[in-house]
């Protein structure tokens, strides 16, 4: 059983080369969507997320909506363990898989096969587990003999197919995504869509940030609308998308 519990979770980023004296008594909105303020020592801080309280359990398919800078990426990174809360509490039970950057760790000088092991290790797979899935990954990527060539010789499409094939091999209990992944030409795109649908179906909890009304309505059973790092609305997809997009 997987679960996520946040209680008044905040994420602050201190700015060490700026003075906060003029900001001590007020908060101002900044272009990034966060909140600019000052702590007790007068140091300037940017508050990316403020007082987030929610619970997610098995079966939740949660879409995150909000303008650029609203805090969606910060929340995804907090869920993924990249960030720690500055205050408040977060409790996550279950193995987490992140598809925020599927090319993370890919070495252009290494071969495709070597990169399968590198990327697989970053995803938490053992060498034995990667070896068991190696043939499947190579076949799915459609790289053929190029799998023995350095990745720097790959086209952009080949690079993405390799990264996608490895990254979607794992089946985490909690899946974190920043937009829906769609890679390759039309032929591979259909394979990728089927693989993504299978991955989402297998996970206990899905959290996906998106700007697409259609995707959120089709994929999610719950939507959280973030604005300036705060939760503005948390409800069913129809209610939130109507308020966010209008009509």
From the 3D coordinates, which CATH architecture of the largest domain would you assign?
Answer: 3-Layer(aba) Sandwich
Q: What's the shape?
A: globular
CATH H-tier superfamily of the largest domain: P-loop containing nucleotide triphosphate hydrolases
Based on helices, strands and strand pairing, what is the structural class?
alpha/beta
Total beta-strand segments: 11
CATH class of the largest domain: Alpha Beta
SS element count, helices: 7
Kindly estimate the percentage of residues that lie in beta strands according to DSSP.
25-35%
Poorly predicted regions are 20-32
Give the % helix.
25-40%
What gap, in angstroms, lies between the N and C termini?
Answer: 37 Å
Strand order, sheet with most strands:
7-8-9-5-10-11
Largest β-sheet summary:
6 strands, mixed
Q: Number of domains in the coordinates? A: 2
> CATH topology of the largest domain, which one?
Rossmann fold
Task: Characterise this structure.
With 247 residues, the chain is an alpha/beta fold. It folds into two domains: 3-94 and 208-245, P-loop containing nucleotide triphosphate hydrolases (Rossmann fold), CATH 3.40.50; 112-203, no CATH class. The protein has helices spanning 72-80, 112-122, 127-141, 156-167, 186-202, 213-219, 237-245, and strands at residues 3-19, 28-29, 35-38, 43-57, 61-65, 87-93, 96-98, 174-178, 205-209, 222-227, 230-235. It starts with a strand and ends with a helix. The relative contact order is 0.18.
């Amino acid at each position: 059983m997987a679960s996520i519990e946040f209680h008044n979770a905040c994420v602050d980023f201190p700015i060490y080369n700026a003075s906060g004296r003029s900001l001590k008594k007020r908060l101002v909105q900044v272009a990034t969507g966060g909140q600019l303020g000052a702590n007790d020592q007068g140091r300037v801080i940017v508050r990316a997320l403020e007082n987030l309280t929610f619970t997610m359990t098995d079966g939740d398919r949660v879409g995150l909506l909000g303008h650029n800078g609203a805090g969606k990426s910060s929340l995804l990174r907090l869920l993924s363990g990249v960030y720690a809360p500055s205050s408040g509490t977060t409790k996550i039970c279950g193995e987490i898989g992140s598809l925020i950057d599927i090319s993370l760790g890919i070495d252009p000088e290494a071969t495709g096969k070597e990169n399968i092991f590198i990327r697989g290790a970053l995803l938490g797979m053992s060498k034995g587990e990667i070896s068991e899935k190696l043939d499947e990954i190579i076949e799915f990527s459609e790289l053929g003999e190029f799998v023995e060539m350095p990745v720097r010789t790959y086209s952009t499409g080949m690079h993405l197919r390799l990264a996608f094939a490895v990254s979607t091999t794992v089946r985490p209990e909690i899946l974190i995504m920043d937009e829906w992944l769609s890679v390759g030409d039309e032929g591979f795109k259909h394979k990728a869509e089927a693989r993504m649908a299978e991955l989402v179906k297998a996970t206990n909890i899905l959290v996906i940030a998106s700007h697409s009304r259609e995707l959120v309505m089709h994929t999610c059973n719950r939507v959280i609308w973030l604005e300036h790092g705060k939760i503005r609305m948390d409800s069913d997809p129809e209610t939130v998308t109507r308020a966010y997009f209008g009509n």
